[in-house]
């Protein structure tokens, strides 16, 4: 497009979360040619009260509780405006029925009212409405809001996530059906969405390769959690969701490699490591969550990195963000064969079909690593940048608008 239209981006993932997300990564590229209004999912009244200890929640609380929309600058993104709708009622625990429907409609009017205020305040007309994985309240905008197109971005299987399965999966099917264009991050999701809406197309995950290539191009001080660790380091970065992570596999990795350290970088959302004794092993280390900008320092010191995903319906539809981040960092990657998408990387990573082959691949990856393989991995990652995904996005949008 010669003059890219404004974008209202409604997403389930807040801009201020400390971890990388599809929506914020794509926003950074789209904002190079468009104004982007990044609309966070609303807090519930319960969220506001229980998270009052968080500085940003405390700062926003009075406005959210009194029905006001908050507009915020997003550091490092001058063309992006953060938008926080007012708080809504906590209703996800309710079963389907008249009570849920009535309260849902109250929440919906509150969120749509906030979006109307945004459109009026910034005089938005002929804009793109882009929704990332958020079918609640404003899945698609009704006619009369001034949008050129309603786009829905499907990034995970809602039926397999505990929170979203309750109401989100049903609502998402309606949004997919009503959207003008549907984008998916994996082949599994593409098949599912095309069965509902033929205007579904792939827009796979990617990486900010420049950030992760620093693991090869800069010399970082050894992170504090790694100081004093002798021997090879086996690493993982990311959200340690129990529906995705095979903790029994990690337990075997640590037990079979007592001369090496297993370092897990990311938020821990499960008590399974405690139940199986993973956290008790002397060569296992949990660092907690880290900002994306901190990850290259950890990756630089890892000798091999893992994608130890379970094989289930949820992971079968995943194209993980971390695969291109790992490759951009030049690191040897060992992964389970959890999805069709991960197998596209078979030439540059080590894929394992069972526990024993995973353990053997970990040793092989460390032993075989060399400069030639590092270059191959980085070359593969450069095919999957967010800049390239933004080009694909505009191509799909242009094509759709041309026939509208």
Q: In total, how many beta strands?
A: 14
CATH architecture of the largest domain: 3-Layer(aba) Sandwich
CATH superfamily of the largest domain: Glycogen Phosphorylase B
SSE ordering: EHEHHEEHEEHEHEHHEHEHEHEHEEHHH
Q: What number of domains?
A: 2
Q: How far is it from the N-terminal to the C-terminal residue, by CA?
A: 15 Å
Structural overview:
The structure is a single chain. The chain has helices at 22-30, 45-50, 55-65, 98-121, 162-178, 187-194, 209-212, 214-217, 247-256, 272-276, 295-301, 321-328, 355-368, 371-381, 386-402; strands spanning 7-11, 36-40, 70-74, 77-84, 127-132, 147-154, 181-184, 200-202, 233-237, 261-265, 284-288, 304-307, 333-336, 350-352. The chain has 404 residues and is of the alpha/beta class. The chain folds into two domains: 7-206 and 385-402, 3-Layer(aba) Sandwich (Rossmann fold), CATH 3.40.50; 209-381, 3-Layer(aba) Sandwich (Rossmann fold), CATH 3.40.50. The strands form two sheets. Strands 3-4-2-1-5-6-7-8 form an eight-stranded mixed beta sheet, with helices on both faces. α1 packs across α15 (386-402) and α12 (321-328) crosses α14 (371-381). The two termini are 15 Å apart. The model has no long low-confidence stretch (mean pLDDT 95).
Layout of helices and strands, plus pairs?
Elements: E1 7-11, H1 22-30, E2 36-40, H2 45-50, H3 55-65, E3 70-74, E4 77-84, H4 98-121, E5 127-132, E6 147-154, H5 162-178, E7 181-184, H6 187-194, E8 200-202, H7 209-212, H8 214-217, E9 233-237, H9 247-256, E10 261-265, H10 272-276, E11 284-288, H11 295-301, E12 304-307, H12 321-328, E13 333-336, E14 350-352, H13 355-368, H14 371-381, H15 386-402
Parallel strand pairs: 1-2, 1-5, 2-4, 5-6, 6-7, 7-8, 9-10, 9-12, 10-11, 12-13, 13-14
Antiparallel strand pairs: 3-4
Helix pairs in contact: 1-15, 9-13, 12-14
């Amino acid at each position: 497009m010669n003059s890219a239209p404004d974008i209202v981006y409604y997403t389930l993932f807040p801009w201020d979360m400390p971890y990388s997300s599809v929506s914020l990564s794509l926003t950074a590229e789209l904002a190079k040619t468009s104004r982007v209004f990044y609309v966070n999912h609303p807090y519930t009244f319960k969220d506001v009260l229980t998270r009052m200890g968080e500085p940003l929640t405390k700062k926003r609380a009075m406005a959210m509780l009194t029905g006001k929309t908050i507009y915020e600058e997003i550091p490092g993104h001058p063309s992006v405006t953060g938008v926080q709708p007012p708080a809504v009622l906590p209703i996800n625990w309710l079963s389907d029925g008249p009570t849920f429907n009535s309260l849902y409609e109250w929440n919906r009017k509150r969120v749509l009212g906030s979006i109307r205020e945004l459109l009026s305040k910034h005089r938005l007309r002929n804009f793109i409405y882009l929704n990332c994985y958020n079918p609640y309240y404003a899945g698609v905008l009704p006619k009369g809001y001034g949008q050129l197109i309603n786009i829905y971005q499907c990034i995970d299987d809602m039926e397999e996530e505990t929170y979203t399965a309750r109401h989100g999966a049903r609502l998402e099917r309606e949004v997919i059906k009503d959207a003008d264009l549907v984008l998916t991050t994996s082949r599994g999701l593409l098949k599912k969405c095309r069965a509902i809406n033929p205007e579904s197309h792939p827009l796979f995950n990617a990486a900010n390769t420049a950030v992760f290539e620093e693991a090869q191009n800069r010399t970082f001080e050894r992170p504090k959690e790694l100081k004093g660790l002798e021997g090879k380091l086996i690493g993982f970065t990311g959200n340690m969701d129990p529906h995705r992570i095979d903790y029994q596999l990690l337990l075997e990795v640590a037990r079979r490699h007592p001369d090496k350290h297993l370092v897990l970088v990311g938020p821990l959302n499960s008590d399974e490591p405690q139940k199986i004794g993973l956290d008790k092993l002397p060569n296992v280390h949990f660092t907690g969550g880290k900002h994306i900008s901190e990850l290259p320092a950890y990756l630089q010191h890892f000798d091999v990195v893992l994608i130890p995903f379970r094989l289930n319906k949820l992971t079968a539809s995943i194209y993980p963000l971390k695969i291109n981040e790992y490759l951009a960092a030049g690191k040897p990657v060992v992964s389970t064969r959890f999805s069709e998408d991960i197998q596209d990387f078979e030439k540059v990573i080590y894929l394992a079909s069972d526990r024993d082959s995973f353990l053997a691949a970990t040793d092989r990856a460390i032993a075989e690593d060399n400069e030639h393989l590092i270059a191959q991995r980085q070359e593969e990652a450069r095919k999957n940048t967010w800049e390239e995904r933004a080009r694909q996005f505009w191509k799909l949008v242009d094509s759709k608008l041309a026939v509208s």
